[in-house]
Amino acid sequence: MLTRNSVWKAWCIAVLSVVGSTILTFALAPLVHEKVTLLPFVLAVLVSAWYGGISTGLAATFFGALSADYFFLKPTFALWPVTQGELALLTLLIGVGVAVSLLTEKVHTTHAAILQSRERLELATAATGVGIFEWFRKEDRIFWTPQMEGLFGLEPGSYDGTSAAFAKQVHPDDRTELQARLADCESRRLPQITVQFRAIRLDGSIRWIEARSRLFYDDSSSLQRLVGVATDITERKQKEIALGNALEKLTESNHRLSLAPRGAIGVWERNSGAQLNWWSAESYELCNAGHEVESSWENRLACIEPEDRERVNREVRTSFEQGRDVRVEFRARRPDGLRWYLAIGESPARAET
Question: Which of 40, 187, 229, 235 could form a disulfide with 24 if both were Cys (CB 3.0 to 4.6 A apart)?
Answer without folding.
Answer: 40
